[in-house]
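Class prep. Sample record?

___
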Amino acid sequence: MPLKDDASLLAAVAQDRDRRAFESLYDRHHRLVFGLACRMLGDPGEAEELLQQVFLHAWERAGSYDQGRGSAAAWLAVMTRSRCLDHLRKRRRGRSRELAVGEPLLEALAGPAPAGPDPRLARAVAEALKNLPPEQRTAVDAVYFQGLTQVEAARTLRLPLGTVKGRLRLAMDKLALALGPWRSES
């Protein structure tokens, strides 16, 4: 199969149930999904299960992918985050909580990238996160990787909610700037 872009692969899965296209999509993005799930859940076994759930959902719902709303990697990352949050909620025994709004970090992490897995992108993301001021990195970690809402992060970090929101906004701006070259590649 000739190398295709992610949108073409998803279209082939949706229209023809093309297994090779699905395998190509998996090969390109399984590291992203598994890495995000490991980071959020803290358990490689649970992350492997979640990886299977995300790609099963992608197989079943490939037709729901809308290229105009973001890259396939971002679509998979948002699905992963959503399922991780569901899992963390269950782990917390049903404790209710509001979800953080927006997905700018996931889009920055998984926005349009060169076809296929690219270790340079992973290094760029890690470097961009490392270069954030510690207080911003802590807020990002709490909300996007530990699965806390902004309100929970404010309580956990013992900060006013407005401070947490401000740190997240500054961090998102810095990450978008640092990852700009990656986001413009397709």
Observations:
- The CA atoms of residues 70 and 111 lie 7 Å apart.
- The chain has a mean pLDDT of 80.
- Residues 99-186 form a domain with the Arc Repressor Mutant, subunit A fold (CATH 1.10.10.10).
- The two ends are 19 Å apart (CA to CA).
